[in-house]
Here is the input.
Amino acid sequence: MPTHTRFFQDRPYWISLLVLCGLLLVIFPLVFDLFRLNLIGKYLTYAFVAVGLVLCWGYGGILSLGQGVFFGLGGYLMAMFLKLEASDVITTAKQNTPGIPDFMDWNQLTALPWFWQPFYSLTFTLLSIPIVPVLVATLIGLAMFKRRVGGVYFAIITQALAAILSILIIGQQGLCGGINGITDLRTLKGWDINTDSAKYIFYFLNVALLVGVLIFSKFLLESKLGRLLVAIRDKEDRVRFSGYDVAHFKVFIFALAALFSALGGAMFTLQVGFISPSFVGIVPSIEMVIFCAVGGRFSLIGAVYGALLVNFAKTFLSESFPALWLYFIGALFMAVVLVFPNGLAGLVAQWEERGDWKAWLRRWGMKPRSVEASS
Amino acid sequence: MESLVATLGHETAERGGVVMNNVVLYVEGLTVTFDGFKAVDSLNFYVDKNELRVVIGPNGAGKTTLLDLICGKTKASSGSIRFKERELTSMTEHDIVRAGVGRKFQTPSIYENLTVYQNLELSCSQNRGVLGALFRPLSPDYERRIEEVATQIGLASQLYEVAGLLSHGQKQWLEIGMLLIQDPELLLLDEPVAGMSPREREQTAALLKQIAANRSMIVIEHDMQFVEDIAHRVTVLHQGKILSEGVMGTVKNDPRVVEVYLGH
Here is the structure.
């Protein structure tokens, strides 16, 4: 069975993707007001990270506890452009040095640092959002995987990277905005990004990008590369002694997950209107792994639901019982590990296998299709 | 001692060789040390083209280590391994495989979560790069080859079954099949019949003989009946050195071999 004919054979996947599209593109915009829809848009930016983790961790067996690094890179690169546009000479006339971002002025900088200069260009910014994170991930990946560093050690190193980047950003207040992050973003090429219409446009752009990522990921998993990832996860030596340079594949999938995270980060900045180190460090990075684990680390679509549900819960709990959130996410993580290791997707699969859904359909007067016919 | 071993190797190569003066694998002065312990000690070892060599010896003699050294899993402390005029000791594992050396591990090393077909597919030498694996479909030649090999290893009817559900013997055959698809010129097999029933052993012996027709093989084995059945020549390792080498009849009656390995 050649790869290309198999691409659309996994009917349940494409049906779940259609259902997801219906939910995100029709039901949510109709049911929720713009404030809530914008929040959902924010949750969906984490889904990019979670989908990347399904490929990298679920299938490739590479657990990264530092995806916040790439999410943050994407977010910061986007924010740098928007911040420069918001810091024109007229708006910042009251500053000691007009024409530079406000936080630089507060920190006694008198000129724009060299690495900020290219971010006057939108083209440069849009190119840098995928390229920089992929480069960083490739370098880390080459350094680690060529030396055969893997498993827990790799996870710890990525966690350290998340800590390093967030500390660096916080420490370099004048260069990257410090703990407050880059705030007060206004326009994109003169177009106000805080209007209602802009928020709708970003929401739909975000969903479209996410669906693109889901389609590409499915294509990848159905290709030989997808099967190689599973093979590397389960029997790395056998793959190596079948003539593959295992490190290349690991670097590739790690860099791809970084790319997805960066896309999410850039969409985050556009929709939320700021970026800060609190989306870069260890805690957000681990939360992103939990989104993926709750959805099911072997399920691309599950990861999206994981990101949505955990963040719904986070918002609800932080609004109503702010102190409970951390206990909740801790308990959730333990529940995933102990009770449903394959996440929500695993629960759904179990439910389908047991045939409960047939009984459920009959109760509603529908005639169930047979499982054989659908798969 | 070293020269003695060397002459012994050459002498037996002439005595029992199936195809003479056509050596594909030269192992010379090979030593590997683990924390001061010499697992393989200045070993000289030659394998001819199309030869089926069996390596026997007591536990800890260095048999598996020798295979690990040839396929690059373990790095040699000193010495050289030349295969078709290429020095293997400085090459990476995947380059050694691409040079034509295949390795079967002792416990069946297959991808349990993938189907038999997918296991064989991943062993094809086509599309070994990242982009090829992502974008290029398997060529029809290889699809045919997968079916051929599946028939050869007796798994044609289980092509689309998950490999984890196969019996132990079938898993061993599957791994042999995965190596066959690579079509290596030198095949290293570590105890291919361990844990198999007598009937499976017979089938494996027949399979190995069939495979051996156009390639060199080094097989580690303990089952003397099986060794006698398949070996062209036998090398006995003891404490990282060659104790005896030659056709089965000669080796079996060598008093030193009887002393350390076969028992009286």
In short: The beta strands of chain B are 23-34, 37-48, 52-56, 78-83, 86-87, 101-104, 186-190, 216-220, 233-238, 241-246.
